[in-house]
Structures are given as C-alpha cells and as structure tokens.
Amino acid sequence: MSIREFLGLGHPAPPSAAATAETATVRKIVESLDRLPPDQARYLAAFAYILSRVASVDLEVSVAERDEMERLVMEHGELGEEQALLVVQMAKTQSLLFGATENFLVTREFNRIATRPQKLALLRCLFSVSAADESISTLEDREVRRIADELQIEHREFIAARLAYRQHLSVLRRPPGGPPGRE
C-alpha cells in the first residue's frame, strides 16, 4: 500500500498540458514516498495524521504548529524537508476532512504497529505540537489525553509527558487582571 492510498488520495491523475513545475515537484516527492518500505510509510502516515489531529482540534492549524509538525516528521521519519511538508499537508487535509470518522481508526492502527517507545515519543510530540504557539488549550490537552488512552499509555506516563509542558497549559495560567494563582 502506498502512502497516497493509506491517506485516501488514490493514484495521481495524469498530468495535463498546463502542469506547472510545482506539480512536477509534488509528483516527484510523492513518488519518493511511494518508494519507502510499506511499514515505514504506514507508520509515518499514521504519525503525521495523529499530530495533525491535535493541531486541528480547534479547527485551525497555526503556522507554528505546522512548522513543528514538519520538523517532527523530518526527525522521526528521516525525511527531507520537501517530503515532510507533503506528508504534513496530506495529513492535515485528511484530518480536517475526515477527522470525525478516521481519528480512532488511524490511532488504533498506530497502536497496532508502533512499539511502546514509539508511542511515548508520539505522546511527547503531541505536546510539542500543541505547545508550538506557546499555549496548550484545554481542547488540545483533552485531545492529547484521548489519544494517550487510545494508545493504551498509562496515566502516569501521560502526566510525566504533560509535566514537561506545564508552563504552556492554559488551564494553569492566571487570566489577565485575575487574582494571583497558579502560573
């Protein structure tokens, strides 16, 4: 199965006479992704999709979140910048279009194929993406918790990963002009 098929994109349409250089570049990147071993492509597609699940929980992916997702996909997928950009863009699109029906299915697939260390690495990456804009909203925090549950990550492991990002948790921040409290 190619990465395009896994992400539900099917086969590329035949190029038209008006195809641009950018289209040729995208086609070249897709072809290079298709050359990945199927297991690696499946892992990478699920990894990127789950990252985008957290980034798009508020129905908007910020530039900082997108950049962080690309960096993480490059790092964990050992991909070049162009390939990572394409993988993240496809994952974002799929998550926004089909999130309600695909979220659990993709996470279940990742749970099946990933090792325990890979699941814990993904958990840290989820917090990293949600903190990319310097604030982890309550919606993002809940979505990370939901994903951790779906990946069968123990509560203590979730708390340990979350603790590293506590300064970004909006729920712990004092509202402007509010009474002194936790910051």
Structural class: mainly alpha
Please give the largest β-sheet.
none
Low-confidence stretches: none
Number of helical elements: 8
Total individual domains: 1
CATH superfamily: TerB-like
Using only C-alpha atoms, the radius of gyration works out to 18 Å
Elements, N to C (H/E): HHHHHHHH
CATH architecture name? Orthogonal Bundle
Break the fold down into its secondary structure elements and pairings.
Elements lengths: L2 H4 L14 H14 L3 H18 L7 H15 L3 H33 L2 H15 L7 H13 L4 H9 L20
Helix pairs in contact: 3-4, 3-5, 3-6, 3-7, 4-5, 4-6, 6-7, 6-8
Question: Your description of this structure?
Answer:
The chain is mainly α. The chain has one domain: TerB-like (Orthogonal Bundle). The chain is built from eight helices and no strands. Helix 3 (38-55) crosses helix 5 (81-113) and helix 3 runs antiparallel to helix 7. The longest helix is centred in the middle third of the chain and has 33 residues, at 81-113. It starts with a helix and ends in a 20-residue tail after the last helix. The model has no long low-confidence stretch (mean pLDDT 83).
Essential attributes:
TerB-like; globular; mainly alpha; 183 residues
Care to give the gist of this entry?
The protein is built from eight helices and no strands.
